[in-house]
Specification:
354 residues, six-stranded antiparallel β-sheet, mainly beta, five-stranded antiparallel β-sheet, 2 domains, 47% strand, S-adenosyl-L-methionine-dependent methyltransferases, single chain, Jelly Rolls
């Protein structure tokens, strides 16, 4: 791995990946939910794709997602739905699809169920083919990938704006479940605010297409220069052979900064992470990674809190690294009133190599 002109031993990273028993993801994989409905679900219904214009949400529990998507964060790149019975004529459907983190408790207010929502399918018109028996008839590639963090419940929202049946419901049955680890809620009208119907345990059998290589922010930083919190982010996707940029923003300008890179966000030797740094005189700050590498640089910028820095990281094309997670955090030499430890810290970032 080449980092900002410095070389880190590929053999070390290879050994690290083996120690972590990282899983290997192929270029693209598929997962069916609920996990027990791989062959078929135990019900059928027409909603939302064969219904009148509506707003439809369906929740997928993380506990079930983890049974099929193993090893942590991935990028969801598409989905598909399975017809239940043969012989129905398809119609056109104009829709949008969002994905988001789902709250633990779903409410009848649609928008409250969408945490950090992402428009993965902008408004488009799809044509349902003639239905077959247990056929995957509705492949929908995403225009924008969605990073599932490997931990959170997932919410899918489908907004149906019109269909080719004069906006009336039509017969076209999709494979579904009742009594499953899911729930759905819906209302007539694509822009409805409140759900009219809510059904726990019911929903479509769904196939997600996913690929490895993901960046997941986690934890919180602490206030530094200019009374702002330094921010860590990544440009690019951490997949084999790619070059990514690890950025620092909102930092003290013209200051020494160190990127801390480690293999865990839960343990550092005998210490449990995160570590509260108040004891060192850094009240409000936490160490979010168990650092193995300490990569120094210097921020640029002028006004307080506007400092930036960037590290170029090349991911080596070593297949055994695929599935490995690394965890990083910026530490910035800083001056904060009332803090004897002269550093501020950013949020953490997980680099899940694909």
């Amino acid at each position: 791995m080449k980092i900002a002109g410095r070389c880190v031993s590929n053999l070390f990273l290879l050994g690290l990946s083996l120690l972590l028993l990282s899983s290997t993801l192929s270029a693209q994989s598929q997962a069916i939910f609920p996990s027990w409905a791989k062959a078929k679900g135990n019900s059928q219904n027409t909603l939302p794709f064969a219904g009148a214009p509506m707003r439809y949400q369906q929740k997928y529990l993380a506990s079930d997602l983890k049974k099929t998507i193993k090893g942590g964060a991935v990028r969801l790149v598409g989905l598909n739905f399975r017809s239940k019975t043969r012989g129905y004529t398809g119609k056109s459907v104009t829709l949008e699809i969002y994905l988001a983190k789902a709250p633990s408790l779903v409410t009848s207010v649609f928008e409250s169920n969408l945490i950090q929502k992402v428009l993965v399918v902008p408004r488009t018109t799809l044509n349902l083919p003639s239905s077959g028996t247990l056929s995957w008839v509705l492949p929908i590639p995403f225009k924008r990938n969605y990073t599932w963090d490997g931990q959170s419940d997932l919410m899918m929202e489908v907004r149906i704006y019109k269909n080719g049946n004069n906006n009336k419901p039509f017969l076209y049955f999709f494979d579904s479940v009742v009594g499953g680890p899911t729930e759905r809620l819906y209302a007539t009208g694509a822009t409805s605010t409140f759900a009219q119907f809510r059904q726990s345990g019911s929903g479509l059998v769904t196939r997600f297409d996913f690929i490895g290589g993901a960046v997941v922010p986690y934890g919180k930083g602490c206030v530094g220069d200019g009374n702002v919190v330094p921010q860590a982010s990544v440009r690019g996707v951490p997949v084999l052979g790619n070059t990514i940029l690890i950025d620092l923003t909102s930092a003290r300008p013209q200051a020494a900064a160190v990127f801390l890179l480690g293999a865990s966000k839960t343990k550092w030797g005998t210490f449990t992470l995160p570590i509260d740094l108040t004891v060192l005189g850094a009240k409000g700050c936490s160490l979010l990674t168990g650092p193995i590498f300490f990569i120094p640089t210097t921020t640029i910028g002028g006004a307080p809190g506007t400092g930036t820095a960037s590290l170029k990281v090349q991911i080596p094309p070593i297949v055994s690294l695929r599935g490995l997670s690394l965890f990083g955090q910026w530490m910035v030499n800083d001056k904060v009133t009332g803090r004897s430890f002269p550093y501020s810290f950013s949020n953490g970032i997980e680099l899940r190599i694909g």
